[in-house]
Amino acid sequence: MDESVQRAVSKQIGQEFFAGYFYLAISAHFERESLLGFARWMRAQAQEELAHAMKLFDFMNHRGANPQLKSVPAPPSEFGPPLSLFEAALEHEREVSRLIHELYDLAGNKHDHATQLELQWFITEQVEEESMIGAVVDQLRMAGDNKAALLMLNREMGARDSG
User: Would you tell me how many other CB atoms lie within 10 Å of the CB of residue 147?
Assistant: First the structure.
């Protein structure tokens, strides 16, 4: 595995761990706000992001590469209303998509077809992530200041499977 690809995949592992921390911090915020459905949804999202990090970590190990694990920045600790948090999550997922596309291009430039093949799963996953979070943003916008609608969405979000 080319050294520059190894560094880039290692950096992406860190991005995935940060995403897990980001969603976990939001989950804690929602729990403090008694929006337990949103909290459960974000916790499930955090677990998914941590699984993504491990998928890349395992891929590197299977290739005999050396994952370079760096410290993960702390996520924000102050949060606003649900709409602003899901908008931030959507922007975060768009940034992750951009980074994965750059990594895919780098792997292609280095003729690393195995890494490109692995990243195709992530590219498809990011389309799903952006679509899913985008739908929540749309619904929260429709709900506006309607507390009943917010509580209905909260209940619906709590039905997400966490495993």
Answer: 8
Closest C-alpha to 24, from 109, 110, 71, 85: 85
Whole-angstrom distance, CA of residue 38 vs CA of residue 156 = 9
Cα–Cα distance for residue pair 136/43, rounded to 1 Å:
15
Q: How confident is the model at residue 162 (pLDDT cuts 50, 70, 90)?
A: low
- Among 52, 28, 54, residue whose Cα is nearest residue 42: 28
Q: Kindly report whether the global pTM for this prediction surpasses the value 0.70.
A: yes
- Per-residue confidence (pLDDT) for residue 13, from 0 to 100: 97
Q: How far apart are CA 148 and CA 150, in angstroms?
A: 5
**Quick check: helix, strand or coil at residue 70?**
coil
